[in-house]
Amino acid sequence: MGLGSDTLFEYLLAGHPNPTTIASVVIEVGCFRLKQSITASNLGFKTLSFDASPKKFAEMEKQFEQLPNDQKSRMQLFQKAVSDKSGQVLQFASIGGTGDHAAGVDLDAGMQKYVNAPNQGIINVETVALDDIVQNQPPDHSVFLLKVDVQGHEASVFRGASKSILNGKIRYILFEYWVDALDQARNRDFGSCTAVRDILIPLVDAGYELFDLSLTAHPKAGKSVTRDYVQRYFRPLNFDEHCNWFASLGASDRQKRNSDADGSAQGYSMGYW
């Protein structure tokens, strides 16, 4: 699809006939900022916004407090880590940037600040499973859109939502597809493509139709990197070939960094939607 994730998010919301009357819910996992939840709630959706990072959650609360009371009544904020089970404790690496992630995962070069500050900002966060969240919604509510952006922890989020997905309780799902981070989170080698079996195949088995969006690299990579990726992208239909193509971008970045004399180069392939 020739759309970015932000554009598609707004496009899907705009296509709903009347979110207030039909009592539709938007769930955002890994908010970073509250912007998209604010957009959804402004249109009449009930929003549930999750972020495990204390610093980012504090910023979300500041944004929330500036909103009209009527809009705030449709919003709920949770400083919890969405995962495969509720009521557990997840160690979380939280410096406060876009790269905050589940601890113990050595993410790629965009996470250089964590390499420079090992074990800083490691906190314990309570977990919650989306199946429990969905099940606890009022009977007349339905989840219209789920957005997930959790730096490689997506497979755990989807396992915790497996019943809701299988039973068709979530209409649309929008998620970051960063295959290297997903492999790292499973302690597997780069290119193992665990995301195919952990996420893609279960979605298809549940009856979902999958689309990939327009290709973008991390903002720090520069427009030339994104342009180069787009020119080389041929959209294979086979899931494994599709995943291997994305993994090749990460491999190219790592090779570039390893060849740098002083080790300062940083690759920014990052994730895709």
Question: Keywords, please?
Answer:
273 residues, five-stranded parallel beta sheet, alpha/beta, four-stranded mixed beta sheet
Structure description:
The relative contact order is 0.13. With 273 residues, this protein is α/β, with parallel strands linked by helices. The mean pLDDT is 83. It contains 13 helices and nine strands. The strands form two sheets. A five-stranded parallel β-sheet has the order 3-2-1-8-9.
Please render the helix and strand layout as text.
Elements: H1 5-14, H2 19-22, E1 24-29, H3 35-42, E2 46-50, H4 54-65, H5 69-72, E3 75-78, E4 81-83, E5 89-93, E6 101-102, H6 112-116, E7 122-129, H7 130-135, E8 142-148, H8 154-159, H9 162-166, E9 170-175, H10 179-185, H11 194-205, H12 223-232, H13 239-258
Parallel strand pairs: 1-2, 1-8, 2-3, 4-7, 8-9
Antiparallel strand pairs: 5-6, 5-7
Question: Strand order within the widest sheet?
Answer: 3-2-1-8-9
Please state the overall shape, judged from the principal axes of the Cα atoms. globular
Category by helix and strand content: alpha/beta
Distance between the amino and carboxyl termini = 10 Å
Number of DSSP strands? 9
Kindly report the oligomeric state of this protein.
single chain
- N-to-C order of helices and strands: HHEHEHHEEEEHEHEHHEHHHH
